[in-house]
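Let us work through a complete example step by step.
Step 1: write down the sequence.
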Amino acid sequence: MTITPSLFEAYLKCPTKCFLRWLGETSAGNECADFDRDQQASYETEGIKRLTQTLATNACVAGDSIALTGKSAKWRVAIGPVARAGDLESTIEAIEQVPAESQGKQGQLIPIRFIRTNTLTRDDRMLVAFDAFVLSEMLDAPANLPRSSTGTRTRHSS
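Step 2: predict the structure and record it as tokens.
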């Protein structure tokens, strides 16, 4: 079975919930959770819109077929690429490419998550770390994991 961010998030909240999802059990539905999920999706859409408005049209690419290599590409931000490594898979909301500071060094690919709350929780940080880990495993490169809550590339409202 493939480990995805939603399965990992379920584990962070409750290992039993994760196990049941892994078995394929479905929940009866929760209006509050559905509302929260819709609000998060809306915030993510708005965040991507704000992020891409400031970039030149050729600096932003979208889709899961984006060539994610550690080498310098022509894009600055990738929207919605899928990173796969072994049993791990993550559809990353956005990836920022930071060019190398000097020639001969490799640039960095930094995953971005859009979080609608004003405070980043431990789970939010763990999900960003999961995205970074899957990306690093796919590229066979060291992960650029956030060191602190102020150093994360997680977007949240002001």
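Step 3: interpret the result. Strands lie at 60-62, 77-79, 82-85, 88-91, 94-98, 108-112, 114-115, 155-156.
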